[in-house]
From TrEMBL:
Sequence similarity: Belongs to the DASH complex DAD4 family.
Annotated GO biological process: attachment of spindle microtubules to kinetochore; cell division
Subcellular location: Chromosome, Centromere, Kinetochore; Cytoplasm, Cytoskeleton, Spindle; Nucleus
Keywords assigned by UniProt, alphabetized: Cell cycle, Cell division, Centromere, Chromosome, Cytoplasm, Cytoskeleton, Kinetochore, Microtubule, Mitosis, Nucleus
Protein name: DASH complex subunit DAD4
UniProt signal peptide: none
Domain of life: Eukaryota
Any one annotated GO CC term: DASH complex
Organism: Acaromyces ingoldii
Broad class of the protein's primary localization: nucleus
Amino acid sequence: MENPHEERQSMLLERIIKNVDLLNDAMVELTRSMAEINEFNQRVTIVSELWEGVSRGSDDSHSSNDAQGH
């Protein structure tokens, strides 16, 4: 005769294992998504820095022209 507690524990363990597998899959997807977001943010930072440089150069050019009376 089987132990009913052992059978119940076995069922619970199977459920736990299944849920941990699902959690692992979700974490893999989350990690992938975070990597994509980080890459996008790096690109935004680069564009922002380039734009800031262009803007500064434009401001300097306008200031120089104003000082020369252009």
